[in-house]
Amino acid sequence: MPRKLYQKSSIRFLRSGDVALGVALGEGRTYSSPFSAAIVLRTLCTAPAVVSDVLIPAAAGLLHCLGRAYARFSGVFRGDEFRLFYVHPEDGRSPIDGVPIPELSIITTLDDDELDTWHRTTEALPNLLHIFEPALRRAAGDAVLEERFVSEVVSADGVSFAADVLQMRAAAADYLAEWYPPSLHDVGTWLPVLQETAKQVWQMLAERFGLEECAYPDCTKDVVEVSKGTFSKCGGCGRVRYCSKACQVYLHCINHNAFFC
User: Fold this and answer.
1) What's the rounded mean pLDDT across residues 182-211?
2) pLDDT per residue over 29-44, tens digit each?
3) Residue 87: beta bridge partners?
4) How many whole angstroms separate alpha carbon 234 and alpha carbon 81?
5) Which contacts of 109-116 are long-range, i.e. CB under 8 A and separated by 24 or more positions?
6) Closest by alpha carbon to 224, among 235, 234, 211?
7) For a disulfide at 54, which of 10, 96, 207, 247, Cβ 3.0-4.6 Å?
8) Closest CA to 250 of 238, 237, 234
9) Closest-CA residue to 163 (of 224, 242, 243)
10) Where are the domains of the chain?
11) Integer CA distances (angstroms), 71 to 11, 164, 239, in order
């Protein structure tokens, strides 16, 4: 297919995908399936010309969709109480106890519409990720494309998206370990890929804008900077930075009362 025709077709599918994916993000209702739209886009994104000419210039919109979808997906395990989990209806055992999925019942505070939207958004997420990933990989190998990609990502507040995914990493692991069967929606497969993608996006922006990562490797608080200079320098070496005094103290104690930087 000629490049111009391919580009026009891709843009048309991207626009139609935006409408369908809007349903999954709670922005209206149509008869379109966000899951199907994402599959169409995913198929188109195997073409290098589409990645360079369509996806990278549209990276801001893609990241916006991905961020909104992740926020909705992760909403069930944010905060002090989970809003959706699976247990055995008779004895309360959870997936961590090895209960087969057919024997589990879903417990949720979501209403029927919210639950339907959550399931459809979760189904669309891995396909959205598969669309965004080629743009990230292609941009990383070309200075001109990387400049355009970074500009798009910055305009979509990509650093906040990346930080949010990384900050929720521990909570997501705890949730999947005990309350949600990771084989459902293949969450256990694509979620680590999403987290690694978020890390790569943050690293790309960190290199440009001088952002720092918390030196405590098991940090579950802020994890990474979203603005330069918000983390404090280590009181021992003055080289690395921590998001909080607590993280510095934890690392200090772990290493037998000697700063390890």
Assistant:
1) 95
2) 443 454 555 566 666 6
3) 105
4) 34
5) 109/83, 109/84, 110/76, 110/83, 110/84, 115/84
6) 211
7) 10
8) 234
9) 224
10) 3-78+113-177+185-209, 213-261
11) 25, 9, 34
Among residues 41, 25, 39, the alpha carbon closest in space to that of 73 is found at 25
Binning pLDDT at 50, 70 and 90, where does residue 79 land? Answer: confident
DSSP 8-state secondary structure symbol assigned to residue 95: G
Closest C-alpha among 225, 221, 227 to residue 168: 221
DSSP per-residue letters across 2-70:
-HHHHHHHHHHHHHHHHHHHHHHTTS---S--HHHHHHHHHHHTTSHHHIIIIITTTHHHHHHHHHHHH
Q: How does pLDDT run across 135-179, given as a tens digit for each residue?
A: 999 999 899 999 999 999 999 999 999 999 999 999 999 999 899
The CA-atom distances, in angstroms, between 5 and each of 39, 93, 229 are 20, 55, 47
Instruction: With beta carbons less than 8 A apart as the criterion, state whether 248 and 229 touch.
Output: no
Residue 166 zone, left/alpha/beta (φ > 0; ψ -120 to 50; rest): alpha
pLDDT at residue 256 is higher than 60: no
